[in-house]
Design goal:
The chain is of the alpha+beta class and about 160 residues long. It is about 35% helix and about 40% strand. The protein has a single domain, classed as Nuclear Transport Factor 2, Chain: A. A six-stranded mixed sheet has the order 2-1-6-5-4-3.
């Protein structure tokens, strides 16, 4: 009888893990962005999306952030951990002290249905403060829908 209860517990645990994994893989029924059949088109989309996100830092246009971030997105930004909901809310809240944020470069590498984008942006804030974001974003293609699942940004202050 003990063997039977351990066996049932193991099966239930495995089923629970399978359900959790299936939910993690689940995506919205529609992709908020365009879909692509080639890596070249996906690379162009990722580059222009990254540049659009950078420029949106100095505006209150949250549409780019809403479109490119996956629902299970996690962002480590200078010691803070944010989810998609928080990132969209902060973008919609306006530019805050940012006067400009200009992309410097974006390098993209593909690994099957995953792309790693690494880049840098130079920003100016009120009072003449300047700095850079140096970042790495992980994009995943789920159901032909490319979105960012993880981002890591480091803030570097520059001399005025």
């Amino acid at each position: 009888m003990i063997w039977y209860s351990h066996r049932v517990a193991a099966i239930l645990a495995a089923c629970g893990l399978a359900i959790i994994a299936a939910r993690a893989e689940a995506q919205p029924s529609q992709c908020p962005g365009p879909t692509f059949s080639s890596t070249t088109d996906a690379k162009h989309y990722i580059r222009t999306s990254e540049e659009g996100w950078a420029k949106s830092v100095a505006t209150n246009d949250a549409s780019v952030v809403r479109r490119i971030l996956a629902n299970d997105f996690v962002w480590v930004l200078d010691g803070r951990v944010l989810d998609k909901k928080t990132a969209v809310a902060e973008a919609a809240g306006g530019p805050g002290p940012f006067l400009s944020n200009i992309p410097d470069y974006v390098h993209i590498r593909f690994f099957g249905d995953t792309a790693v984008a690494q880049g840098s942006e130079t920003w100016t804030k009120t009072g003449g403060r300047r700095g850079r974001f140096i970042w790495t974003d992980t994009w995943v293609n789920r159901g032909n829908c490319w979105q960012i699942v993880n981002a890591q940004d480091t803030v570097v202050q520059l001399a005025p």
